[in-house]
Write a structure and sequence with these properties.
single chain, 7-stranded mixed beta sheet, globular, binds 4'-deoxy-4'-aminopyridoxal-5'-phosphate
Length: 402
Amino acid sequence: MGNRELLEHASHLLPIYRQPPNVMARGEGSRIWDADGREFLDYSGGIAVLSVGHCHPKLSAAIAKQAATLMHTSNLFYTDKELLFAEALTRRTGFSHVYFGSTGTEANEALIKLGRRWHFEHGHRERTGIVSTWKSFHGRTLGALTLTGQPKYQEGMPLISDVSYVKYDDLAAMDAAITDQTAFVILEPIQAEGGILAPSDAYLRGVRELCDARGALLFFDEVQTGFGRTGYFLGREHSGVMPDACSLAKGIGGGFPLSAMMVSKKLSDGLPVGAHGTTFGGNPLACAAGLAILEIMEEENLVENARVVGAHLGEQLDALAKDASLPAAVERRGRGLLQGVRIAPEYDARDVLFAMREEGVLASVAGGDVVRLAPALNTTRAEADRAVEAIRKALPRVAKKA
Ligand code: PMP
């Protein structure tokens, strides 16, 4: 079936997203094909999910093998893959414990419960406050949505109590917000959905010091920045700051729904037996995928590739943003393979995506005005050049907003 025939069924989906009329049917590496057989360079990367590219043969084989061996038991039982993956992931990240889930928002819900419950368990019952940042993104379930400092996503929704918001990358604002009733502060090491905003290293170090001085916990949301995306295994490594716990999702499963809350030893008694749980978290199929991804990333040096190809991509985008003949592109943002070009307010970033698609390249929008490139971590310099070329050709074709 081709695009047109398949699209006749689109009316059955709730109209929550704005998809283009290309129905995706097959992928390989950084390339994806729609149902009419049209090929695209996928620099949307499934929104920073494709750690090893589409259908990496080793990942596909690991999933197929596990699917034919043992798919699910629930957490009533340990499984071999879960235990092996927990060991590998804690060794790789430096955290001591892990709790598995299926989505990013779910890992952040676990952080909220851990942060509150740890203080409760330790007799700090007054510590219920949470400090988050404006323009952050932490997910769509109600706890994570409350942490998400973007009112447009919260409109009309029930929210949890005791959450305050401060400007990101503003240490004085954080200083004013953290009190003796703060349970934890949550931050993205780079605000991704907010528009790819990287803070100063001094900011993250300063927040760590404030939390330590005042007895509050510090959590990082590494859902988008983790798993090599920014040129280090975790986004935290740019600053060297170690949070008390962090969330991981997206790249950890490379397309298989998998997430994790990574926890330091200090907090490992925060959620006693029965305090939290999920049916699918850490199931052997997901953990087999996770193990394969860690192996592939190691064998193919993908964190380094993200740093090297990301630096090249960043340089090309810098040149593009500085090019006076392209007034729609005003600024390059990002690190590693999380890169963006901010589009001038007179233009619509979505129109740029449309024109790029005509050139055969897919991207996404972050923060409303940033064209985001978050490709597979095994993308090449040649592919990066092709993506930049597509933006170069697309920008002059985009008309000013009416
Ligand atoms: N945190 C961050 C930083 C994210 O970028 C996202 C997704 N864009 C989420 C949490 C939510 O993840 P999920 O969509 O898997 O629930």
